Description:
It is a single chain. By secondary structure, the chain is of the alpha/beta class. It contains 14 helices and 13 strands. The chain has helices at residues 2-11, 28-39, 71-75, 112-115, 118-134, 143-152, 202-208, 224-235, 250-259, 274-280, 294-298, 310-323, 326-336, 341-355; strands at residues 13-18, 46-53, 66-69, 85-88, 103-107, 137-140, 160-163, 185-190, 213-218, 242-246, 262-265, 286-289, 303-305. The strands form 2 sheets. Strands 3-2-1-4-5-6-7 form a 7-stranded parallel sheet. Strands 10-9-8-11-12-13 form a 6-stranded parallel sheet, with helices on both faces. It is globular.
Amino acid sequence: MLCLYNLSLKYMKKILIGLDKLNSPNSGFGRVSVDYAQALEDTQDFSFTYLVPSHYDASLLPGKKTIKLTWWRQLFPFYQKRFDLIHSVHQRPEYRIRKDSKLLLTIHDLSFAYNHTKKEQRQLRKKLCRLVHQSTAVAFISDYTLKDSQEKLQIPDSILYRRIYDGVEPLFKKEDRPVDLPDKKVLFSIGVFTKRKNFAVLLPFIKQLPEDYILVISGNENTGYGNYIQFMIEEKGLEDRVYLTGEITEEEKSFLFHHCEAFVFPSIVEGFGLPILEVMQAGKPVFTTDKTSLKEIAGGHAYFWTDFCPASMKKVFEEGMADFNEEKAKAEQEYAATFTWQENVKQYLAYYKEILNM
Length: 358
């Protein structure tokens, strides 16, 4: 029996999963890394090892085989020779990948084309193109990202590619109030404070609404754009209407999703748009834009701003709030429930087999 077990181990394909963003488990790439790794388990075909930062919260990956990304491993990737495939779960790996390794690269978005100077865009595009050309296969997290990449990157015909949607972790309902906010109607938004999140348009919008509405925006605001938003809040005298909470825990996020009146997400560049699916699980109305991937991911269960005139935004909001009901809440919950990590993993396992000709 032992011999058969050792024989099966010999023929299992060894895959290295790059999780170099685990130091920020509540950020976009960090959250995806955690959720994917927790859903992925060894099978009779595959043995998985996880490449993690030198210092990270080990409780995120209980029972998983890991390799720490030390400085010398960053410089000398000899350890990669023993793996049949390397899967970088995002497009900006912070480690070198051997040119003779089979590489699967997951691309989330091409935000470099929107957030940087022309010179920086050229440099980042060149770096990503080089990585794409080094890849055996590429996965895209939405049809929009796939199409955008085909237009902006030179993807060789020899490279395999497919679209695989991210999963969404089920929300748990938390009743106690973990954030200190006034007892008013909350409009909630979340994201890292960058220009593409477009939070600035929410300030004149909230001024259009009755005084019993407040706006809560969560995320790392220690950025240049975050400083600008804070300045505009003070400039417009909105200190008692707009609250920036900074980064929040999953428990706090779940509370705000369940207890907000609506979720407002005016982003103009998204590769996927995970928060709108998260809040749909709580059965809340979603107001977002018709830009990039958001209309695709919302699947007809959101209300869309097509321009950012405060009066137009208010009109869409009022009409949407009047239209939303229990039936629509149930429909969006059922829709959001179709985005599971189990389905995501199932598709990746099939993709691994295709890449490795199994």
